[in-house]
Amino acid sequence: MSNLWELSIKEIHSGLSGGAFSAHDLVTSYIERVRAVEPIVQSFISITEALALEQATKADEAISTGAFHPLTGVPVQIKDIISTAGIPTTCASKMLENYVPPFDATVVSKLLDQNAVILGKGNMDEFGMGSSCEHSAFHATHNPWDSKRVPGGSSGGGGASVAANEVAYALGSDTGGSIRQPAAFNGVVGLKPTYGSVSRYGLIAYASSFDQIGPITKTVSDCAIVFDAIRGPDPLDATCVSRTYDEIAVNLDRNISTSSPLNEGSPIRIGVPEEFFTEGISPEVKKVIDDAIRQLESLGALIEPVSLPNTVHALACYYIIAPSECSANLARFDGVKFGYSDRNTPDMWESMERTRGHGFGPEVKRRIMMGTYALSSGYYEAYYTKAQRVRTLIRREYEEIFTKVDVLVTPTSPVIAFPLGDKLDDPVEMYNVDICTIPANIAGLPAISVPCGFSENMPVGMQLIGKAFTEPVLFNMAYAFEQSTRWHQMKPQL
Amino acid sequence: MELDIEQVKHLASLARIDLSLEDCQELSQQLGDIFDQFESLRDLNLEGVTPTAHIADSTNVTREDQVGHCLATEDVLINAPVRNGDFFQVNPVLEE
Fold first, then answer.
1. C-alpha distances in angstroms, A356 versus A81, A95, A250?
2. Nearest residue in B to A350, CA atom
3. Does the beta-carbon distance from B40 to A373 stay under 8 Å?
4. Smallest Cα–Cα separation from A100: which of A34, A43, A51, A41?
5. CA B57 to CA A239: how far, in whole Å?
6. Which residues pair with A75 in a beta bridge?
7. Confidence at residue A1, expressed as pLDDT on a 0 to 100 scale
């Protein structure tokens, strides 16, 4: 038998149910794997080995009594921005270095209800702000395919840990591409769900109107299993709405040449928006995506060129609204109720200013300053309100396009994983990397990244964007593509 | 566009962030560069376009007014940087 840490969630589930191995065997195998590769990858902020062993014992007990769910006993890494009761949750910030949440995020409760095994917390860009995982206050994470390159961000720990087989899957969060881009850079699958389909309760807020939690996994069917487990309405998050669709994981293999939601019995219509293939895209990435589109066509999909002209305004729209929301959300870090606190002055305001000046890293301070500027008197109309109006334009453009096509296909990132340090000194260049992922957050749409080839021996991801709440269609497409290619079987040599 | 140092200092005071002069100098350049990228929005005709504040279409989500689970006092105070009995302690706000 292959190493247990190589198995997918689906394979683990059948192994556990058939008694081929126990949850304890499984977690022990993963712990050994983490010990072996973590010195290179450094995807974790904290490793909860003792807890994981305890949870594995509980999982084995549950299995023996027949209380068996798809994620029972399966080891997971949780991004360190998602609250875990009793386990430090730092947001990769000095501000929360010693913060231990007194409650679980709803997604964590849902995993624990299935007797999941938490192996640790994932590294990230501080408070989710960054595209390379280099803005962690603790350490950088290294791409398992080439340790001199970034794993992407902000959920870089999640992408790297899954690619390196340190965990079976990870939970990340995506505000402007933070799940999909690291998934693409590491050759794994990542889903940003429709806004409102997964509870944000316990997700430490960066930009509340964009943030969504989602899975990073080895395969498309694993992604569906995790999404099925974490979605659903939550009274603790008023934006998390009630939508019922059938369990996705068991309905993946519908024929895409006959399953168009727009036109029943007809092939799925795929739009290729030209604006995602112009400025800034690497020619090799473009070639890989073109080949992937041909593959989708050979599976029976109809390919149509489409245009989304307002895409050029997406970056500006996002980098005004997200920092504005961030400047408001991060006002809570004042050194009073939790987190870092500088009390070396008797003055209350000075204490607060020092706390924030020393507790936040450079990128977080930069974004708070951007947001403060965009919201300040005299600039509010010119920047914030204007960006919100542009958001309406972009949203309408997507509503319109989805009356003509079922799905859009684009690169997940215009470039492959870049060398560590390459873009660290130039914030504008770093922001530009998010160009392909940001529109789905602006319009609240679901989007999945699937491995679709290589450039310079580094993985390339294909992004599928759908209409709100059409995750089943995205999964259907992604699964058909994955099953007809071998990209997901390729693993980094560590 | 470049923000001058005084503007950056003003923003820092609004955001309640203590910044060194060096930080302010770096930010005056960077914020200028960043906001230059937003100039493309200037010429857009947005007449009659309503702003989107939030993507979710739900409004006035309410629940029954029933007592639910709450955190215990100890749990709430467990992360307090400085506490005094069952209170968070801050530096004096009002002068004597």
1. 18, 8, 48
2. B18
3. no
4. A51
5. 8
6. A117
7. 53
- Give A412-422 pLDDT, tens digit per residue: 999 999 999 99
For the segment A38-94, what is each residue's pLDDT rounded down to a tens digit? 999 999 999 999 999 999 999 999 999 988 999 999 999 999 999 999 999 999 999
- Give A489's contacts (C-beta < 8 A, 6+ positions apart): none
What is the structure's pLDDT at A151?
A: 98
pTM: 0.97
Domains of chain B as residue ranges with CATH: 5-43 (1.10.20)
- CB-based contact, B33 to chain A, within 8 Å: yes
Q: Is the dihedral of CA A137, A138, A140, A141 positive or negative?
A: negative
User: Is B61 touching A (CB cutoff 8 A)?
Assistant: yes
CB A323 within 8 A of CB A374: yes
- Pick out chain A residues at pLDDT < 50: none
Total number of residues shown for chain B: 96
Joined tokens for residue A306: 């489409």
Using a CB–CB cutoff of 8 Å, tell me whether A391 touches chain B: yes
pLDDT in tens, chain B (96 residues): 778 999 999 999 999 999 999 999 999 999 999 999 988 898 899 999 999 988 877 778 888 899 988 899 999 999 999 999 999 999 988 876
For A381, phi then psi, to 5°, come to: -65, -40
Q: What is the pLDDT of residue A245?
A: 74
Q: Which residues of A423-440 are buried (b: 16+ CB within 10 A; e: fewer)?
A: bbeebeebbbbbbbbbbb
- Are B16 and A353 in contact (CB < 8 Å)? yes
Q: Given this model, what pLDDT does residue B96 score?
A: 66
Q: What is the pLDDT of residue B2?
A: 74
Chain A interface, best mutation among B40, B41, B94, by max A CB count within 10 A: B41
A157 vs chain B: nearest CA distance in angstroms?
A: 26
A positions 425-484 inside 8 Å of B (CB): 427-428, 431, 443-444
Phi, psi for residue A142 in degrees, rounded to 5? -110, 140
What pLDDT is stored for residue A244 in this prediction? 72
Q: What is the DSSP string of A284-331?
A: HHHHHHHHHHHHHHHTTPEEEEE--GGGGGHHHHHHHHHHHHHHHHGG
Q: In whole numbers, what is the pLDDT of chain A averaged over residues?
A: 96
CA distances A429 to A359, A434, B38, Å, are: 25, 10, 14
Nearest-Cα residue of chain A relative to residue B12: A369
- Whether A326 has its CB under 8 Å from any CB of chain B: the answer is no
Between CA B11 and CA A354 the distance in angstroms is: 15
Q: In chain A, which residue's Cα lies nearest the Cα of B50?
A: A389
Q: What is the pLDDT of residue A280?
A: 87
| In the block, residue with structure tokens 């997940």 | A412
Using a CB–CB cutoff of 8 Å, tell me whether A335 touches chain B: yes
Burial pattern B35-64, b for ≥16 Cβ within 10 A else e, equals bebbeebeeeeeeebeebeebbeeeeeeee
Residues of A with a known catalytic role? 79, 154, 178
Q: Read off the DSSP letter of residue A102.
A: S
Looking at chain B, which residue has its C-alpha nearest residue A195? B56
Contact present, A115 and A229 (Cβ < 8 Å): no
Which residue is listed with tokens 């509010």? A380
